[in-house]
Amino acid sequence: MDKIMIAISGGVDSSCAALILKEQGYDMFGATLKLFTGEDIGVDFNSKCGNEQDIVEAKKICDALGIDHYTVNFGDSFRENVIEKFVEAYEAGLTPNPCILCNRSIKFKALADFGEAHGSRLIATGHYCKSEYDSASGRYLLKRAADLSKDQSYVLYTLSQNQLSKIRFPLGGLTKAEVRKIASEAGFSNANKPDSQDICFVSGGKYGEFIEKYRNKKYPHGNFVDLEGNILGEHKGIINYTIGQRKGLGLSLKAPLYVCEKNALENKVVLSDEPHLFTRSIVADDVNFIAVAKLTAPMRVKAKARYKMQEQWAVIHPLSETSVRVEFEEPQRALTPGQAIVFYDDDVVVGGGTIN
Fold first, then answer.
1. To 10 degrees, the CA torsion angle through 281, 282, 288, 291?
2. 62 part of the active site
3. Chain-centre distance of CA 79, in angstroms?
4. What CATH number matches the domain at 277-355, 2.40.30.10, 1.20.1090.10, 3.30.1330.10, 2.102.10.10?
5. How many Cβ atoms are within 10 Å of 65's Cβ, its own excluded?
6. What pLDDT digit, counting tens, does each position of 101-118 carry?
7. Residues 6+ apart with CB under 8 A from 66
8. Closest Cα partner for 13 from 201, 188, 130, 204?
9. 99 is annotated as an active-site residue
10. CA–CA separation, 287 vs 216, rounded Å?
11. Per-residue pLDDT tens over the stretch 52-86
12. Which of 43, 84, 269, 329 has the maximum number of C-beta atoms within 10 A of its C-beta?
């Protein structure tokens, strides 16, 4: 059996995944990411992923399982490939998903390379999803988890065929309750550890506050305008707003208005009534296909444009090898440039891209 590296965070999911692999007889070792401290990036809190407490917990689990443990410092790479790209996207008026950036450049690239350098061809994680080889198509597939409430296939759509051939997801067939039960029966101290909800480098979901501290600057105020360009008031920096937002605008309006566009070049935030937030057609770029090699004809899929969104029927039309037009059957609210849109055929991830 091939040697395998388990990406172990110190949380219950990756700890349970490590236990399952150990019981399956794998020759394995654990690796924990160390990403940054607040001092590293000029903010007043430390990473919620790979902090010292998590590293201690991860090593404790590895010791209990009798496997070697490594701490791998990818702070510089994380700052360059995740935090910088996140901040640059917000400055450009986009709304990025940093977990997708991290999976693409850190967890399944840099960490996988570390594993190979230490003799492991395979990598395992505690993500809730499934991967399998489909002999009919000759392709490795990414599929939704049994526990749809925890499914993480949305943030893994960038995986390549080569990566999927080497990845194992031991939790794909389990519910979160079953995972906690397994960890509790094994005596793991993190069995009831709460799930992390926020982005690991942003405290309390305050993206604008983080960006200002990180860049050590204040962003210029500008105008709120309506669809005709009439000035409605002053905004406090374009980084502080998201598409679909109504609360916190600081305006006294006769009727509710919502953020429908952020124009970074002109430093203005466009407001509209709610019906203008709905659209049926968008373009996605930087598309990665998994279930098919490429899209050569329109395909009916279910599309998901936010992590918590319920998938909706749509048809994807090829525009180029890496871009598609997505035509929803019903208008969708607040489709946001910079966010991922992922396409499903039942429980199989067809592919995904970034909303243009």
1. -10
2. no
3. 16
4. 2.40.30.10
5. 21
6. 999 999 999 999 999 999
7. 22
8. 188
9. no
10. 34
11. 888 999 999 999 999 999 999 998 999 999 999 99
12. 269
Contact 233, 259 (CB under 8 A): no
Q: Which CATH architecture has domain 218-272?
A: Roll (2.30)
Please report, in angstroms and rounded to a whole number, the separation of the first and last CA atoms in the chain: 44
Task: For residue 31, give the 3-state DSSP assignment.
Answer: strand
Q: Which residue out of 16, 62, 99, 200 is catalytically annotated? A: 200
Annotated active-site residue in 49, 102, 129, 260: 102
113: its two tokens? 């390379």
Which residues in the chain are classed under CATH 2.30.30.280?
218-272
What does the alpha-carbon distance between residue 190 and residue 15 come to, in Å, rounded to a whole number?
A: 8
Spatial separation of the C-alpha atoms in residues 30 and 36, rounded to whole Å: 19
In 3D space, the residue among 306, 333, 302 whose CA is nearest the CA of residue 316 turns out to be: 302
Rounded distance, CA 256 to CA 185, Å? 52
Q: How far apart are CA 244 and CA 343, in angstroms?
A: 22
Q: Which residue has the higher pLDDT, 42 or 227?
A: 227
